[in-house]
Amino acid sequence: MPKGVWAASSAAVASRVFGTPRHTTHYLECGPAEGPLMMFLHGWPELGLIWRAQMEAFASDGWRCIAPDMRGYGGSSAPAALDAYANEQVVRDMAELHDHLGGEPAIWVGHDWGSVIAGSLVAHEPARSRGLVLISVPYFPDANALPTLVPLIDRTIYPADEYPDGQWDYYRYYTTHFEAAVSDLDADKGASLASIYRSGDPKTIGKPSVNAQVTRKGGRFGEAHRAPPTMSDPALWPEGDFTALVEAFDARGFRPPCAWYLNDAVNIAYAHRAPNGGHISLPVLFVNGVYDQINTINGNRYGEPMRASCADLTISNLLGAHWLPLERKSELVEAIRAWLQAKHLSAVRP
After folding, report:
1. What is the pLDDT of residues 206-229, one digit of tens each?
2. What's the Cα-to-Cα distance from 266 to each of 83, 165, 181, rounded to whole Å?
3. In order of start, what are the domains of the chain with their CATH numbers?
4. Other C-beta atoms lying within 10 Å of the C-beta of residue 96
């Protein structure tokens, strides 16, 4: 585990490691040991530390909060094989960690790819959950994959002749130029991370995302093939946590996290094995970033599969972009608290 991950953790947040013969997971924990479980799953390119504000808030409400570093990140295992980052493998990691923590039904909270894993876990093993919170990336019963995403592109923003893959061009670039994509991100890891984590701008809504232009530019950063010098935004990441994030990526690089984008076929096959066609009957909260150019469900078809597949769905809109756990720390807490209360999912045991 990179030393900064522990150094950046407050006294209220404990650093722990759980291992099995197949995988090791580093995770953060806070809140009463006897409290009901709330599991926080991060996405790309994050760490469990992204949840600090939410963990501390819900720990004060009586929840036992757990935030693992997902496979390929931080202090958790990072296999060399690219197919090791398929959804089924990561769901199994989380199921094993959940068993280690006692296995009682939990509230699963996911952001970005963590949302994909949380949704997959609940769809395949609903007995592990009391409710599901998805942030930024909605649930897809057919898996979050290019064949699922491309048909839902808003062609008023992304005409097919100019943007065949719409906002998912960056995703396509991973599948066609993986080594180049990783090399560009690794060229200056701190600057890459600082350039990725920026607040939303309402002026961008309805306009093509820069992520739709990766292929035509020859990479995320164009001809430079490295991020421009960029300072981190302290309003998003606390300084110590951002330092720990950069340390973790200095140690592992972007290759393992980016490998999550390379397993569409097996992820779709896995999704199709979920019971009940992947439909989820448990309470689901989707938290939408209104200024999220890539993932907002407002004014487009992107949220349709989730609406059709979740029997008890609540949608909350926050005035932020993609990095809601950082950009709208307290507002996200309040949105989840309101949903928990409305669905009678409080931390108080019956």
Report:
1. 999 999 999 999 999 999 999 999
2. 9, 20, 22
3. 3-342 (3.40.50.1820)
4. 16
